[in-house]
Amino acid sequence: MTKEKVIELLQPYLEEDRIFIVDVSATAGKNRQNITILLDTDEGIKIEECASISRRLAHFIETNELIKDAYNLEVSSPGVDFPLTFKRQYIKNIGRDVKLNLTEGGEKIGKLEDVNDEGIVFKEEAKKSKGKKVVPIESVIIPFGNIQQAKVQISFK
Predict the structure, then answer these.
(1) Is the pLDDT at 129 greater than 70, yes or no?
(2) pTM of the full predicted structure?
(3) Would the N or C end of the chain have less CB density within 10 A of its end CB?
């Protein structure tokens, strides 16, 4: 089964776009096909929702004999270590610390302050150096096109 077919099959379970697809992979393993689906919502998806979609999708696949051999189906949330991909995910993480890898190279760590149609409002962490005064860094707008990867940073403070 292809990634495109899995995405097509998921559409009836997305509750009119309340649930959105973050990533889908469908790969052939040695003994069985592996299908991994990452879903999310603007509020964060619950494990019960993932389990329900997994059960209903598996039932549909088996009832319609779409996969003849053994397969693994995993439906879950992307988790905090998965990169932010969609504007909806950025909005959900306003106020959190993120690490940006920029397309022109380099990385920045700071607070995601806001999101608009063009990009994000980002306030980089102030650099600390020995014996020098810490200069606060102003917020900047970073276009989505300049962000290669963005990941939420976990804080244990």
Answers:
(1) no
(2) 0.81
(3) C
